[in-house]
Amino acid sequence: MASASAAPARAAAAGPPAAAAAVAAPGAIAMGLAYARNRAKRLYRGLVKLWRFHVSGRHKRRAGGLVLRESETVGEEILLINSRKNPDVWIIPAGTVERGEGLAEAALREVAEEAGVVCGVESGGDLGTFDDDDRLVRTAVYVMRVTEDLGAWENMEFGRKRRWWALDAALKALKDRDRRPLEKYLGRAAPPRGA
Fold first, then answer.
1. Pair (83, 164) in one structural domain
2. Average per-residue pLDDT for the chain
3. Which side of the chain, N or C, has fewer Cβ within a 10 Å radius?
4. What DSSP string runs through 45-63?
């Protein structure tokens, strides 16, 4: 009967390449499991998206805010954060509405978490909802004014940035989905798609 330690002993006797392969196998298995887990997550997200779009016809509910302040040099400014997935892309702070939470309440919470500022919603500050059919999300956006700067925000330690922008510069920097609420705030018509 062979002992349990016979396999490593045979690998060592076979020479350095076989011994290295026997030791490297657990790392390769872990990498394979991580890859499989990532593929399973993608498949799950795809199925959820498919369900939302084709079966339920419902978009995911999100809420966010146009966080504004007055500046002596440029007038009104807006606070933007960079995207976690693409740090060169600037977005408005927004996120998923939690169960039992109102839209304005969710917008204030998301702005505090993602941008590190406490705000108040302006009266008449509901800009409406904006659909992103590619991602199947519907975002309610509110105009807000800063009441307190917390000095820290979510994912700050991982390089997420926030920055105050002049409104015209922000229009150029924002991705399309987040540009539409700012255009509505400024009273500008959104350019036609593909133009």
1. yes
2. 81
3. N
4. HHHHHHIIIIII--PEEEE
